[in-house]
């Protein structure tokens, strides 16, 4: 296979993925290689090429010209592969220890070749199996503070920030979020997947005028605010981890948006996994919710004070105002994400896998009630501990309020 600009795109298969890995000198020419397509996301192909004799491996990710889970009837730009590889490289400038190394990219083939992370596990899967990942929220809080502060106006200055934002226009993937996170889950749209035992609750939500109004405001803020370069889809399926290590993958939804969106997605998906836990370790997942916020704010504050291009940065109260604004967005977007994982198209696989109907329905209805409160009452939340209290109230079926 050539990587010349004249060659037309074609999807890889397990054999051509091996050919490419050898051609890129990632393995010896005579190495015996195995390859498996392991993509389980909604959009792309992912090939895992390994050399069993040495234990070495690499990942080759390729965008398809359509949405993988739907098929060719839903075409989608290959441009997302460029977004992903460029975003990975930018995030690596700020937080290299939390991002996979990119070995090679090919725009024509929509390919990103990157570090093999098979020593780690996808956090959503690990959480479902009972893992806790003690360092996860410390690592994610660091990653979020460094990437989000580092790409903001405060760190870069407005001119450089505007230049960088041009590189991450990403209209097609932003439209997916606008529709499937912000719009469809709040209306009776045919794309929604609502299980029978939840249809009454869904009808209630879809006619809740307060929810629609606050959901609309969050969507508009997502569409117009350009605070920092976001990952754009930072759920627990986009994070690999072990007890010692954390890596954030899949930033194909990267664009300039509101800082609270990335934090909110991590929190929402951790809350969902916590709702599914009924043993003592639930508290350890909930600690990730408070800790990610604490680590984020501590580090963001240090970065703000160390190096800030904004003339007004030192004005008393300005940093505190920014952090309150980010918290309000974080809470609201955590609500939007939780809601779409219950009544929208793309559900959380760990919750869907629960076979006890009563338990699954309880988790989903608690999640929907919590999500509504996070969206509608987001300005009332003063700290992340309040989110944890709201989850316990939703789970116990009592009124949410502090
Ligand atoms: C149709 S795509 C739905 C979801 O898949 C991606 O992983 C994003 O989360 C998107 O919202
Ligand atoms: Mg993804």
What does this structure look like?
The protein has helices at 14-23, 79-94, 123-128, 136-150, 153-156, 158-167, 171-183, 199-206, 209-224, 259-276, 282-306, 318-343, 349-352, 357-376, 384-396; strands spanning 34-37, 44-51, 56-63, 66-67, 71-75, 102-106, 111-115, 121-122, 228-230, 239-241, 246-248, 255-257. By secondary structure, it is an alpha+beta fold. The chain has a 5-stranded antiparallel beta sheet, with helices on both faces. Strands 8-10-11 form a 3-stranded antiparallel beta sheet. It has a two-stranded antiparallel sheet with strand order 4-5. β10 and β11 (246-248) form a beta hairpin. Residues 1-5 have low confidence and may be disordered. Magnesium ion (MG) binds next to loops.
How much of the sequence is in beta strands? 5-15%
Bound molecules: 5-S-methyl-5-thio-alpha-D-ribofuranose, magnesium ion
Please give the largest β-sheet: 5 strands, antiparallel
Tell me the span between the first and last alpha carbons: 61 Å
Helical residue percent band: 40-55%
Q: Give the strand line-up of the largest sheet.
A: 1-2-3-7-6
Shape: globular
Q: Oligomeric state of the chains?
A: single chain
């Amino acid at each position: 296979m050539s990587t010349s600009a004249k060659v037309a795109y074609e999807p890889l298969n397990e054999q051509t993925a091996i050919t490419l890995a050898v051609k890129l000198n990632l393995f010896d020419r005579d190495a015996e290689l195995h390859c498996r397509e392991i993509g389980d996301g909604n959009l792309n192909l992912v090939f895992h090429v390994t050399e069993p004799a040495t234990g070495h491996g690499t990942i080759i990710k390729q965008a398809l010209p359509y949405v993988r889970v739907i098929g060719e009837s839903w075409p989608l730009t290959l441009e997302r592969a460029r977004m992903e590889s460029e975003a990975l490289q930018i995030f690596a400038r700020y937080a290299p220890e939390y991002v996979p190394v990119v070995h090679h990219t090919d725009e024509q083939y929509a390919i990103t070749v990157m570090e093999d992370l098979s020593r780690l596990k996808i956090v959503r899967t690990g959480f479902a199996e009972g893992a806790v990942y003690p360092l996860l929220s410390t690592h994610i809080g660091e990653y979020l503070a460094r990437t989000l502060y580092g790409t903001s106006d405060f760190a870069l200055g407005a001119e450089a920030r505007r230049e960088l934002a041009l590189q991450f226009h990403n209209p097609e993937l932003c439209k997916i979020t606008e529709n499937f996170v912000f719009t469809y889950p709040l209306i009776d749209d045919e794309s929604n997947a609502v299980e029978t035992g939840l249809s009454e609750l869904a009808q209630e939500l879809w006619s809740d005028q307060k929810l629609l109004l606050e959901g609309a405001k969050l969507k508009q803020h997502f569409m117009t605010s350009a605070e920092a370069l976001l990952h754009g889809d930072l759920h627990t399926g986009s994070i690999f981890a072990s007890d010692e290590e954390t890596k954030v993958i899949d930033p194909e939804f990267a664009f300039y948006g509101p800082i609270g969106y990335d934090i909110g997605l991590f929190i929402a998906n951790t809350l969902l996994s916590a709702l599914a836990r009924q043993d003592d370790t639930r508290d350890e997942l909930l600690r990730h919710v408070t800790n990610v916020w604490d680590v984020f704010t501590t580090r963001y504050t240090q970065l703000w004070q160390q190096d800030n291009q904004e003339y007004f940065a030192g004005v008393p109260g300005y940093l505190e105002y920014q952090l309150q604004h980010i918290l309000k967005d974080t809470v609201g977007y955590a609500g939007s994400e939780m809601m779409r994982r219950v009544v929208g198209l793309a559900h959380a696989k760990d919750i869907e896998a629960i076979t006890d109907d009563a338990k699954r329905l309880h988790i989903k209805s608690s999640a929907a009630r919590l999500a509504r409160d996070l969206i509608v009452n987001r300005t009332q939340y003063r700290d992340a501990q309040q989110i944890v209290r709201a989850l316990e109230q939703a789970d116990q079926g009592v009124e949410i309020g502090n």
